[in-house]
Amino acid sequence: MTLKATLQSCLAVDHDSYEVVVFDNASGPGVRNVVEMMAEPRLRYVRSERLLAMTESWNTAVAATRGEWVMVIGNDDAVLPHALHEIDAIVDRQRVRAVKWATATYTWPDLADRRDANLLSIPLARELRRLNSIECIEQLGRNEIDINVLPGNYHGVVHRDILEQVRQQTGQVYSSPYPDTYSCVAFAWVAGDFAYSSAPFSIYGLSAFSNNMAARLQQSQNTVGREFLELNERDGIRTHPWFPDFGIVPTVVPDAFLQAKMRFFPDRPDLVLDRQLWTELLIRALWMPNAEDRRRLIAIVREHLRDDPTLLAWFDDNAIAELPSDGEPRLRHPFWGYDGEKLWVDTTLFAVTDIFQASKLCVALAGGTEPLRWNVLTRESERRMFRQQIRNLELQSQILQQTLESALSCLPYRWVRSVRRWLKAS
Q1: 3-287+327-377 has which CATH code?
Q2: Are 35 and 4 a contacting pair, CB within 8 Å?
Q3: What is the per-residue pLDDT across 183-221, written as a single tens digit (0 to 9) for each?
């Protein structure tokens, strides 16, 4: 069971004011036994006697919390020991109601695909940004920002006021089959500016029973995925009809956007989802070992376009169904070590077998628990950085043009004329 290691990480957090609500979704006696065995006053056990779909289980669990700030993690995830002190400092400095961060990632040894088991990836950047939620939602519609940057409270914290605003407007906090991604957009709508840390405060765990892994392995073909789909069907919790429920990023993200738009900003013409772009991304993300299975999934995607004849014609006229897949999705990086953004570690070399041990390794490799020193990026500093990047690109373009002109001067005139015509046309 992964829960014990997750709770060990929570209880190792260095802070004097927090509680951990352990929500038991009608499981066997194991969850209660772990909590009782740990006998820790900061743990509070809450149980549902009826098996709930994920959306309702999240709503029930969050309703049981009592703190001013709320974070959600799974039972195979971990919190880093310095997390709450750093979050306190960010809130005091930035005066925001939501803080999101890049997560480290750990894959448990029991992962179904052993090729991706026993890895730990640690983001090493130390940038703190103050971001505008509405701008982020707009960028998300065009796939110009990772949804995990937006201020959901799965591996993020939000003030209780945000939860209450969402609940008052829609009747419940989470309203999508995928509450983790939905909350990113829904909470962004009410949060205003929020803080984003590129340094991790928690570890996203992937184990044999993770819903994420179930989706990667085709939900309907494994026990975890089938239960997820069946419970949603039982309770009438459905994804938006524009995209099939495949449970992978190019379907889950559009669903989060569209479900939130339907409830919060239906009349905002600036906040729209580029359905054509996301459909193409979905086709490229579809990988199956059997070509016939992939064609079957692509046919399902096409069926979901029938409500829009223009989009359907684009799909057929541009042979979107023939687009190649980006390849088999893998968690592990091609090599161990630092790739310029993250440090990739083979945890078997350190005898790490669970996420609590991985959290200690993460802290040690990332520099300990001393207060972080930030490279703070404001919107103005980002603009200056982007302007400098544009100037650099313009300079590189000029150098390339001069190099090309020098090369053309060595060619016969008719060749030069052909090359210039081609450059003008392109």
Answers
A1: 3.90.550.10
A2: no
A3: 999 999 999 999 999 999 999 999 987 765 545 445 555
Q: What is the C-alpha separation between 235 and 231, in angstroms, rounded?
A: 6
Other beta carbons within 10 angstroms of residue 63's beta carbon come to: 14
pTM of the model: 0.85
Contact 195, 94 (CB under 8 A): yes
Q: Where are the alpha helices (DSSP H) in 289-412?
A: 291-303, 309-317, 355-366, 379-408
Distances in Å between the Cα of 360 and the Cα atoms of 4, 57, 81, 365 are: 15, 30, 9, 9
| φ, ψ dihedrals at 227, nearest 5° | -65, -40
Pairing of β 193-197 and β 156-159 = unpaired
Gap between the Cα atoms of 61 and 31, Å rounded: 15
Q: Structure tokens of 386?
A: 């982007």
The full set of domain ranges for the chain reads: 3-287+327-377, 293-324, 386-425
The token duo for 156 is 């993020």
- Please state, in angstroms and rounded to a whole number, the distance separating the CA atoms of residues 423 and 400: 13
